Amino acid sequence: MPGLRHRHTHTGTEPPRPELARKALLTSTEGRMLRIGLLLGAVMVAALGIVSIFSPELTLVFAAMTGLNWLIGRAAGMSFGYANDLTHATVIPANMLIETIQVLVVYPLFVLSLQNLLDLPKLKPLMARLQGSAEARRQAVSRFGIAGLFVFVFMPFWMTGPVVGAIIGFLIGLRPSVNIAVVLSSTYVAIGLWGLLLNELSDWAGTYNRLAPFALVVALALIAFGGGLVYRRRAA
To answer: Would you state the torsion angle of the CA atoms of residues 167, 35, 67, 52, taken in this order, to the nearest 10 degrees?
Structure first.
């Protein structure tokens, strides 16, 4: 299948040698992705720091939107942005950046740790959960290859999304460049469509009460939390 590669994965139990870790970070595709992700994260933090000088309130909105996206999901994060009267031109690119950073940091960390090139003991529980979710859906996605991965990332189910999708792409043997291109393009399309829907919902809620858009954020967060609990119980 186009875009597939043979994966050379070293998963031994011996600790990674420092010289191998440095070489992987400097020369591997995943190492380059990680550096780009960290650079984008640093740029975002610096930009928020500059904005905080002129508009502390706007900085808090961006910080909260980022936290909600990462901890709960894009629906809650984007809804919070719209509830604070941000426009599509702000909410959509901001969430694209947020999820791009998430993919370009977590995905290469997962691959490098799976290959025993990085030792990340504090992140092992998270990596194990991500791998378990990806393994559970690997077969279904692999039947349809790149198209299946695109749809998987696009659909708003629990424990789907760009990071798990990128891990599935790795597990089914997609080349890193193809994998990330598919995952991010699907993510951007999904964010754009979510923006259209959530903005309409926020405007509709605002016609009833000025605080109603924030109630929508809380409702979406509770739905995501409840859905996550149901998923974990079924997976147990």
So the answer is: -160
